[in-house]
Structure formats: structure tokens, C-alpha cells
């Protein structure tokens, strides 16, 4: 389904991003895994190369999505490694939490989460769309990742929830502006998914969270990955500016 397509996945060195990489690789995409953890990015590359013998070239790169220069280096590396071709699929999966009650939250931890989750998504999407337009490419798809927390207003996550609500608002506008270039921009909104980012949640809190989920379990990274792959694929060619919730039926 993704033959001859280059897919850039930020945060592809772990969790949901790694699951997407695996799914897209099975559908013949060239995967560019860009992560702050180069070890994580390398591991994802090795994983997909060991599981999928498609013969296409994959790349693992170090990036800090909160830094424009760092992101620019990623887009340059894509051009250099793929004969001046550009990525036409983008998944903004890089994300962090710095949880604290609002009255105790430091300015640094507020800024850091906004810089990675919201500004990082903005800058990667901007560079991706600029490159596609400059190179007269159409049929692009961007998937951004928000969170049910933005709607639920989880305690201790004012910075994270604000960043994810911002990602949704950014996506709506980007979808409107990019539609004339046939670049679609959508959001996947996960619930509680079993990845390293939620492994600091105490078991008692986790049990409470799970009891509120109609499907009565945490989601798997692959289950979010499949929803992302759908929004990247031609199967969703008439869908843009939308939010797809993947949360086991959580009522928001
Ligand atoms: N797991 C969940 O329950 C859940 C729920 C809702 C939303 N999300 C969102 O899904 C996305 C993926 O999260 P995950 O669960 O796979 O977590 P994860 O921690 O497994 O993966 C996040 C990845 O982002 C990378 N990263 C962090 N800061 C970065 C930076 N500045 N530049 C580049 N890479 C950076 C990390 O190294 C890591 O590999 C995040 O945006 C997260 O907020 C996750």
C-alpha cells in the first residue's frame, strides 16, 4: 500500500511510533525513524529490517523535535539518502510528560512539554509541507498524536493536556490550509496505551483508569498504529482535519 513512499516518524524509537514503523514497513514504505534516542531509533530500524525483507532502505536518525535546526537536518538527510526525493508521509509521535500539580509545576516543565509536543509537531509539519509543495508533490498525509487526557483534564497534566489540545487545534488549521495541495492532516487520539510513557503510573491509578474503559484493558501500540496507518493510506483519501479516537470506548 505504501510502495515508493517515504514515511518520516518522529518518536519512532519506542512505543506507538515503533509500532507504526513496523506496520508501514510491512506495506513496503521506506521508513525514516527520527528520535531523540538514537539507540531507540536504531533498535526500531533493526527490528523492521529483521521482520520485513522488502529490500527498501530505512534510516534511523537522531533528532530533537523542539529544535528547528535539528529537524532541518532530518529533512536534509532524507533528500541526501533518497536521491533528492522527499517524504510524503509524516507521523508526529514524539512526546513527553512532566507531570506535576498545576500550582507546583515549574515554568521550565511547562515550556519543555509545549516545546516538544506542540511546537515540535508544528515545526515538523511545517517543514514537511514546505518540502512537499516546493517539490510539487501531492498526495501527502500527516498524522499528529493527541490524547484523551486533553479532553478529560487529567490531574497533574496541565502542561501535557494544553499541548495536546493545541495539537488538535493546529491540525484543524493545517488541514484547511493544506487541502488545496492534497496534503491531508489528521489526529489520532489514543487512550491508555501500554508503552513506556505510561509505565510510571502507579498500579492503583492504572486499575482505576482501566475500570473506566468499556473494553476493560489498556490498548496495545499496534492498535494505535493501525489507526495511524489507515489515516496515512489511500483508504482515508477523503478524510482530513478529523480526530480518530482509539481508546477502548472511553466516553469523553
Ligand atoms: N501511551 C499512551 O497511553 C498515550 C496516550 C495518549 C497519547 N500518547 C502520545 O503518543 C505519542 C507516542 O507516545 P508513546 O506512548 O509511544 O511513548 P514513548 O515514550 O514510548 O515514545 C515517545 C518517543 O518520543 C521520543 N522523544 C521524546 N522527546 C523527543 C524529542 N524532543 N525529539 C524527538 N523524540 C523525542 C522518545 O525518545 C520516545 O522514543 C506521544 O505523543 C504521547 O503523548 C500516548
Outline the structure in words.
With 252 residues, this protein is of the alpha/beta class. The chain has a single domain, classed as Rossmann fold (3-Layer(aba) Sandwich). Helix content is 45%, strand content 15%. It has eight helices and seven strands. The chain has a seven-stranded parallel β-sheet, with helices on both faces. Strand 4, helix 4 and strand 5 form a beta-alpha-beta unit. The longest helix is centred in the middle third of the chain and has 28 residues. It is globular. The two termini are 33 Å apart. The mean pLDDT is 97. Nicotinamide-adenine-dinucleotide binds next to helix 1.
Number of helices: 8
Give the count of structural domains.
1
Structural classification: alpha/beta
Radius of gyration: 17 Å
Question: SSE order in H/E notation?
Answer: EHEHEHEHEHHEHHE
Oligomer: single chain
Tell me the distance between the termini.
33 Å
Kindly report the CATH topology.
Rossmann fold
Bound molecules: nicotinamide-adenine-dinucleotide
Amino acid at each position: 500500500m505504501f510502495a515508493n513512499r517515504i514515511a518520516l516518524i518522529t518518536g519512532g524509537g519506542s512505543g506507538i511510533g515503533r509500532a507504526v514503523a513496523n506496520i508501514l514497513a510491512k506495506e513496503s514504505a521506506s521508513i525514516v525513524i527520527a528520535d531523540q534516542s538514537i539507540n531507540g531509533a536504531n533498535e526500531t530500524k533493526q527490528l523492521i529490517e529483521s521482520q520485513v525483507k522488502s529490500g527498501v532502505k530505512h534510516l534511523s536518525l537522531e533528532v530533537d523535535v523542539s529544535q528547528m535546526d535539528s529537524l532541518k537536518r532530518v529533512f536534509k538527510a532524507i533528500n541526501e539518502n533518497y536521491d533528492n526525493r522527499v517524504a510524503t508521509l509524516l507521523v508526529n509521535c514524539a512526546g513527553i510528560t512532566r507531570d506535576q500539580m498545576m500550582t507546583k509545576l515549574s515554568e521550565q516543565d511547562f515550556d519543555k512539554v509545549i516545546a516538544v509536543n506542540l511546537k515540535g509537531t508544528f515545526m515538523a509539519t511545517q517543514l514537511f509541507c514546505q518540502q512537499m509543495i516546493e517539490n510539487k508533490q501531492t498526495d501527502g498525509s500527516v498524522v499528529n498524536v493527541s490524547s484523551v487526557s486533553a479532553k478529560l483534564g487529567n490531574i497533574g497534566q496541565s502542561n501535557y493536556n494544553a499541548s495536546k489540545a493545541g495539537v488538535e487545534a493546529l491540525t484543524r488549521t493545517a488541514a484547511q490550509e493544506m487541502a488545496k495541495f492534497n496534503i491531508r492532516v489528521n489526529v489520532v487520539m489514543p487512550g491508555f496505551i501500554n508503552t513506556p510513557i505510561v509505565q510510571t503510573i502507579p498500579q492503583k491509578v492504572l486499575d482505576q483508569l482501566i475500570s473506566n474503559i468499556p473494553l476493560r484493558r489498556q490498548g496495545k501500540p499496534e492498535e494505535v498504529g493501525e489507526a495511524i496507518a489507515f489515516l496515512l493510506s489511500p483508504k482515508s483519501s477523503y478524510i482530513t482535519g478529523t480526530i480518530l479516537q482509539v481508546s477502548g470506548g472511553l466516553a469523553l
